[in-house]
Specification:
- There is one protein chain.
- The protein has a single domain (9-44, 53-95), classed as SH3 type barrels (Roll).
- The chain is elongated and about 60 Å long.
- The chain starts with 8 loop residues before the first strand and ends in a 9-residue tail after the last strand.
- It is 0% helix and 46% strand.
- The protein contains no helices and ten strands.
- A hairpin with a 5-residue loop joins strand 9 and strand 10.
- With 104 residues, it is mainly β.
Amino acid sequence: MNKIRKGDTVVVLSGNDKGRQGTVLSIDGEKIIVENINKSKKHQKPNPQRNVQAGIVEKAMPLHISKVAIWNVGAKKADRVGVKTLNDGKRVRFFKSNGEVIDA
């Protein structure tokens, strides 16, 4: 079970965007793409067949998953995530600091 999933709000722990928050757009193994974080500019050639114009385009680049932590709304800080099994056999994620269940 992944501790960070698509749609979670995360905060960046290190790098140029340290302290910034964003929503997870996609996860591919150990790489994660976060909305409006780690953007780079790409010079794009025109492609009339695909109706693409030329210019400088900003593109979201992936981060390593260890550089982000999930945002705990109740505590208003970055938090670690654990996984536990409930009595009915369902596995859920929880915040390590206060034990609050993330997905019920």
